[in-house]
Amino acid sequence: MGGLYGRQPQIYGQPDPGLVSPNVTTASNGTKYERAEPYLKVRITSLDRNRRDILVRFDAQTNLSNFTGTTYRNVSRSYYEFQQFYEAIIHNNPQTIIPALPLAQTSAPTDEEDDRIVKIMLQRWLTRICEDNILTSEEEVRSFIESDFGYQPTPATKRKTSSGFSLIRRSVPDEDEELQRARFELTKLETQFFDAAKAIDKLSKTRKSLSTSRSEMGNKLVNVATTEAHPPLGNALRKIGRAYHSLSDLDQAQGISECVIVGDTLGYQGLNARSAKETLQQRTSVLEEYQTAVKTTISKRRNIERLKASRSIGAEKVDEALQDLQEAERYEQILARRADGISQNLHKALARHKRLVTEDITAALIEHVRSSIMYERQHLRELETLRSDVSNAASKHIPAKPVTALRPPVVPPLEDFTRAPVPRPASGMDSRVPPPIGRTGSVPPPISSTMSDPLASRAAAYTPPSSAISPRPVSGISSSTMASPLLPQSPGAGPSSGPSSPVPRSAKSPRDEEYVC
Question: What segments bear the compositional bias annotation Pro residues (predicted)?
Answer without folding.
Answer: 433-447
